């Protein structure tokens, strides 16, 4: 089970880390909000087809809960993050989003019955965050100038929404991870499409093949498949461990970006990845010891 948790988390990190390059391709022909809403809709359709094909059916009707999770997981952050990033360096935004595991740790006793702030989670979250700082240290050391307070608060609010959504998923009972992922994405896609139609009326234009393929990949893989893995990881390893994908994704994104542009990968990137992996290992090791103590 321990190896399975690591492999699942790594797969999530690899898939979500690859989204940055495909989003760049998609932005050539589509607006950000339509990329996000279409991505959620394609992801939901992908999971609906998979559930139908293997005969998995929902055993509960917690649509209000799924709607709230979809709102916190996708709709609100999708508006806040792009808006906040307009006036913030990407490195600052990544650091602020990297505080997500801290909020999961802090709010766990409130939203999850019997959850406690233990040493395993606390130590691993702190070490993982230090890895994120190492990753972006070269940019931070150059000076980011004045940090816009309102934009920063928007990113932090998005991280808090993600954290609460992650914890609320623990309230879903007796449901297959595929069904949970399908229902959350279905609720989120409806909300995002409404936001898209209200804020950015769709304008037809000829899209490149690369942009269309990128949107399909973002929907089917970076939303559909990865959400199933995400729900499965929460079920098997818990929300704090799963939230550390937020540390892996930026590192993977840097690696993939360097490979695509044929740039050399800096030593701090390797160090950051090693620190993050150590944080994951410590989380599972200490958690196992606390359970047997």
Automatic annotation (TrEMBL):
Domain EamA, residue spans: 6-136, 153-282
Alphabetical keyword list: Membrane, Transmembrane, Transmembrane helix
Cellular-component GO terms for this entry: membrane
Protein name as catalogued: EamA domain-containing protein
InterPro entries: AA-Vitamin_Transporters, EamA_dom, EmrE-like
Lineage summary: Bacteria, Pseudomonadati, Pseudomonadota, Gammaproteobacteria, Vibrionales
Membrane topology: Multi-pass membrane protein
PANTHER family membership: AMINO-ACID METABOLITE EFFLUX PUMP-RELATED, INNER MEMBRANE TRANSPORTER
Chief site of localization: membrane
TM spans (from-to): 7-27, 33-51, 63-84, 90-112, 119-137, 149-168, 180-199, 211-230, 237-261, 267-286
Localization per record: Membrane
């Amino acid at each position: 089970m321990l190896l399975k948790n690591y492999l699942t988390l790594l797969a999530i990190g690899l898939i979500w880390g690859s989204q940055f390059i495909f989003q760049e391709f998609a932005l050539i022909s589509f607006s950000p909000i339509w990329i996000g809403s279409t991505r959620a809709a394609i992801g939901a359709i992908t999971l609906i087809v998979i559930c139908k094909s293997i005969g998995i059916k929902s055993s509960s009707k917690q649509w209000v809960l799924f709607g709230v999770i979809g709102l916190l997981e996708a709709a609100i952050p999708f508006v806040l993050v792009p808006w906040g990033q307009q006036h913030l360096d990407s490195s600052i935004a990544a650091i602020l989003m990297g505080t997500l595991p801290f909020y999961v740790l802090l709010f766990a006793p409130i939203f999850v019955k019997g959850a406690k702030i233990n040493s395993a989670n606390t130590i691993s979250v702190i070490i993982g965050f230090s890895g994120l700082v190492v990753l972006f240290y070269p940019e931070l050391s150059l000076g980011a100038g004045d940090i816009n307070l309102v934009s920063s608060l928007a990113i932090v609010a998005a991280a808090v929404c993600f954290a609460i959504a992650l914890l609320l998923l623990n309230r879903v009972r007796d449901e297959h991870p595929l069904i949970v992922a399908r229902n959350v994405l279905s609720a989120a896609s409806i909300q995002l499409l409404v936001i898209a139609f209200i804020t950015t009326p769709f304008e037809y234009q000829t899209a490149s093949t690369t942009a269309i393929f990128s949107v399909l990949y973002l929907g089917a893989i970076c939303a559909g498949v990865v959400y199933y893995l995400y729900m499965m990881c929460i079920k098997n390893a818990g929300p704090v461990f799963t939230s550390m994908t937020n540390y892996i994704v930026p590192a993977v994104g840097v690696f993939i970006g360097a490979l695509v542009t044929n740039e050399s990968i800096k030593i701090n990137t390797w160090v950051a990845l090693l620190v993050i992996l150590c944080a994951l290992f410590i989380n599972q090791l200490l958690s196992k010891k606390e359970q047997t103590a």
